[in-house]
Amino acid sequence: MSKYFGTDGFRGEANVNLTVDHAFRVGRFLGWYYGRERKAQIVIGKDTRRSSYMFECALSAGITASGADVCLMHVTTTPSVSYIAKTDEFDCGIMISASHNPYHDNGLKLINRHGEKMEQEVIDEIERYLDSNQDLPYATGENIGRVIDYASGRNRYIGYLISLATHSYKDMKVALDCANGSAWMIAKNVFEALGAETYALSNTPNGVNINDGCGSTHIEQLQQYVKDNHMDIGFAFDGDADRCLAVDEKGNLVDGDGILYIYGCYMKERDKLANNTVVTTVMSNFGLYKAFDTAGIQYEKTDVGDKYVYENMRANGHLIGGEQSGHIIFGKYANTGDGILTAIKIMQAVLGKKMPLSKLTQNLTIYPQVLKNVRVQDKDRALNDFAVQNAVRDVAEKLGDQGRILLRKSGTEPVLRVMVEAPTHEMCEEHVDAVIDVMRQRGLAVEGPKA
């Protein structure tokens, strides 16, 4: 595990554990690293957090001080930075965002020249530099880098999204919850250009209201709006718009599992589902797998994180994968999760099949799920304890083909996660608590479960 960078970048509270000095030094390193043989070019995007402007300035100062040029896309989405880094042949890209976190957090997401998450070996070198007293050479004279306005890149990305739509959205009433974040202008522009009667919620960012009671982490607002205003469909994005959750015309949530099911089936029907396989994570719902079995669709399971989903897709030639949270990757069109692209693809399935969204999920039953976190002294010892393993096996045998149990360790905390999916919520609670009771009896749990 890296010291500063996790699976989704360097994230922390702004100027507490992610400081302006960190951003300056990351910029210094990247400008030097990619500019050792020629003048490098780096593209930067940001979300609407107040601190994003501060970090943009710090990164730009560091990069240009090392002699590289910076192109600023300004407020934009993470997938747009990925798209432009690749298509415009930048050395790398940086997105300033803490995704679905509250406004006081922020993050630096690093993207390579292929539009993918930065290679671990580069991350390792950055981390060594951050913890060192190494002096990098400063550029002087005409070798000092430039800061260039690159709003045109964002506009080209909007054009790219529009070009991917296969139907007119005329006569469709669409609600968009933009989370007061990166999607606040882009999503509405795209849907209006495609002819939809568009209603944008949470699209007045002020620097401190990103994800505040809105967006994909607070879907209730959109659900109520869709029902009250008789919308045909609704979409909710997170702070940097790499996630999308949908709401059907009845106000029901369609999460990432539902989206994978809808579009996986749609691809299979048109003979477009490469390897007849959808990539999921271990946290996808048991009901999704049963529905895939019925539909004759194969699936793979990765560790939690869209990074692992993408790695599996790339290694095996699969074209669709994602997470329950709404990170959906359409491998033919993007190298990362893209919330607005996901919304366009859902619209394609709805309009292509001439069915409302609720009909497209009628054969998918999402099982009740209970997940509890247990703080432990030693994750590996608790995970591999024979009595705990026996308890897990006992639950699995009782559930049979009517549910499942998953015991996994957190990647960032001294916590084990116990998750059960079963036909009823009561069964889930009973089986989760049975395993946790064994952990307590064995003296493995530091304290009670944290829901």
Residue-averaged pLDDT, rounded? Answer: 95
Chain oligomer state: single chain
Gap from first CA to last CA: 25 Å
What portion of the residues fall into strands of 2 or more residues? 15-25%
Name the helicity range. Answer: 25-40%
Q: Structural class from helices and strands?
A: alpha/beta
Would you kindly provide a written description of the structure presented here, covering whatever features stand out?
The chain is an alpha/beta fold and 451 residues long. It has helices at residues 20-33, 50-65, 78-87, 120-130, 151-164, 183-193, 220-228, 256-269, 286-295, 306-316, 339-353, 357-360, 379-384, 386-399, 425-441; strands spanning 5-6, 9-13, 41-46, 69-75, 92-96, 105-112, 147-149, 173-177, 197-201, 233-237, 244-247, 253-254, 277-281, 298-302, 320-322, 328-330, 369-376, 404-409, 415-421, 445-450. The strands form five sheets. The chain has a seven-stranded mixed beta sheet with strand order 1-2-6-5-3-4-7, sandwiched between helices. A five-stranded mixed beta sheet has the order 9-8-10-11-12, with helices on both faces. Helix 3 packs across helix 5 (151-164), helix 8 packs across helix 11 and helix 14 runs antiparallel to helix 15 (425-441). It is globular, with a radius of gyration of 23 Å.
